[in-house]
Amino acid sequence: MAKQRLVLIHGFLESAAMWKYIVPRLSYRRNFNLSIPELPGHGNNAFLPKEFTMEAYCQNILEQLKLNDKEEMFIIGHSMGGYIGAHLAAMMPKRVSGLCFFQSRAGNDSDEKIQERKRAIEAARQNKSLYVRTMLTNCVLEANRDRLREELEHMIAEAGKMSFESISGAQQAMILRNDNVELLKDRKFPLYYFLSPQDTALPMDIMEKELAELPGAVAYYATNCAHFGYMEANREAVDFIKRIIMAA
C-alpha cells in the first residue's frame, strides 16, 4: 500500500516554520510522506495569485505538493490553513484520507466577521507593523505571553516582512471563501477538530453549532491557550496529532 501524504498547512501571518513545534515529536514516517507547503505571500513563497481566492491558493499548494496519481492527503490545517484544507477536500474529495481543523473551521465568515476583516485590511494599510504586532499578540493568551515572548517576537518579525498586498489578499480570500459544512456531511474520510474554549477567533457557540452538523467529527478541547495552541499547549497538540495520524 502506498504511503499517504501528511500535509501540514500553516495559517495567516504564519509560515511553514510554525510546524517546528510539532513535527520533531511525531512518528509519521512509517505511514506518511511529509509535506509542509507555504501559502502565497507567506514565508518563502513570494507568489501572489492574480485573484485572491481560496481556489487560487489551493492551486498553488497543489503545485508545491506535486502529488502522484495514487497519493491521498491527510491534511492538518491551522486557522487559514484549515480553510484551505476544506477547499482542497471540496476540489478533490477522493484524494483526501483525513482532515483536521486545527483551530479552524469548515464554515464561512459571518457578516460581523467580514466587517472585522475589512477593518483589519484598513488597519494594515495604515500601519502594517502595528497591525501585525497587535494581531499576533492577541492570538496568544495573555497568561502565556511572558513565557512565549521570544517565540512571539520572532513571529512578529517574520510576519512583518510580508507585503501589504499579501496580507490584504489573504484576508480577501478568507472573506470570499465557501461554506464547506454541507459538503463535509457526506465525507468518506475522518474529520477532526483541535479547539480551545479560550480562542476568541473561534467562539464556542459557533463551533458547537458546526460540530452538531457534522456527525462523527472528533473534537478535542485544549486548555490554557488562545489561537496558537501548537506552541501554547504544545504537549496537548502533539499528543492529539499523534493519535489521529496513528489511526489513519
Give a count of the beta strands, DSSP E runs of length 2 or more.
6
Gyration radius (Cα, Å) is 17 Å
Strand content: 5-15%
How do the helices and strands follow one another from N- to C-terminus?
A: EEHEHEHHHHHEHEHH
Which stretches are poorly predicted, pLDDT < 50 over at least 5 residues?
Answer: none
In which range does the helix fraction lie? 40-55%
Shape designation: globular
Q: Which strand order spans the largest sheet, edge to edge or round the barrel?
A: 2-1-3-4-5-6
Backbone structural class: alpha/beta
Sheet with most strands: 6 strands, parallel
How many helices?
10
- N→C terminal distance: 13 Å
Structural description of this entry:
By secondary structure, the chain is an alpha/beta fold. It has 10 helices and 6 strands; from the N terminus they run E-E-H-E-H-E-H-H-H-H-H-E-H-E-H-H. A 6-stranded parallel sheet has the order 2-1-3-4-5-6, sandwiched between helices. Helix 1 crosses helix 2 and helix 3 (111-126) packs across helix 4 (128-137).
